[in-house]
Amino acid sequence: GKSNKFTMMGQGEFVLAKDGDFQVNGCQADQNWNAENTLGDDKTRTFKNVKGALTWNKEVVAKEGANTVEVIMEPTTKVIVNGKSINFDVTGSWKQNRVSVKDVAGLYVRQHRQNQLVIKFTETGRMLVVSHMSKSSGRFGTRKAFNVVIKAPKTATYTGLCAEKKTTKSNWATSAVGAGTSLFTGSETCKAAVVAEVVKEEDAVVVA
């Protein structure tokens, strides 16, 4: 197969990958800026440098057919499976509170590691691995985000950010999700209809 890396851009909801009725959206947020102009927990800057923004996935949603799985960061880390909320415990007690959904037709959702959730649509073989990242060191201070790996059959074809390249910059903004068309139901973070702008190249990986 092939492996493509592509960046999440700007803030808001973007289509990462879409093929037929399969779709993965990410909700992006600048990790080193907020209303108080703070950088991480203890650093400050006096302006919002868009090109220097550090954007990551704060929420992820995957949908195929009748099944929708959301992975939410705030206000608490949780998984929402077809409207049912399940705590996503990323602490040392995760084995006692492991996310495990096996009784929904066409869907398998299971927490394989403390910080890792596998979402598999069993009828097509498409799969996501969502990893919770928590960092408290380095130049950007404290930040939390989700890393997303999308796996699919070699024959799959995609539209969305993960199908784009640096040379197709004119198409990037078309993956921004407009108001009223969000796949999320439980996200309090996402702001739709934000123009995409590349900032870094390590947020999403598609393996096809």
Which helices and strands, and how do they pair?
Elements: E1 3-6, E2 12-19, E3 22-30, E4 38-39, E5 43-44, E6 55-64, E7 67-72, E8 78-81, E9 84-87, E10 100-101, E11 107-113, E12 116-121, E13 126-135, E14 143-151, H1 169-172, E15 204-207
Parallel strand pairs: 14-15
Antiparallel strand pairs: 1-15, 2-3, 3-6, 4-5, 6-7, 7-8, 8-9, 10-11, 11-12, 12-13, 13-14
Task: Give the SSE order as H and E letters.
Answer: EEEEEEEEEEEEEEHE
Number of extended strands: 15
Molecular shape: globular
The separation of the N and C termini measures 6 Å
State the strand order across the main sheet.
Answer: 1-15-14-13-12-11-10
Q: Please report the number of helical segments.
A: 1
Rg calculated over all Cα atoms:
17 Å
Estimated helix fraction: under 10%
Q: Averaged pLDDT, please?
A: 76
| Largest sheet properties | 7 strands, mixed
Unreliable sequence segments: 1-8, 33-51, 192-208
Secondary-structure-based class equals mainly beta
Could you tell me the strand content as a percent range? 35-45%
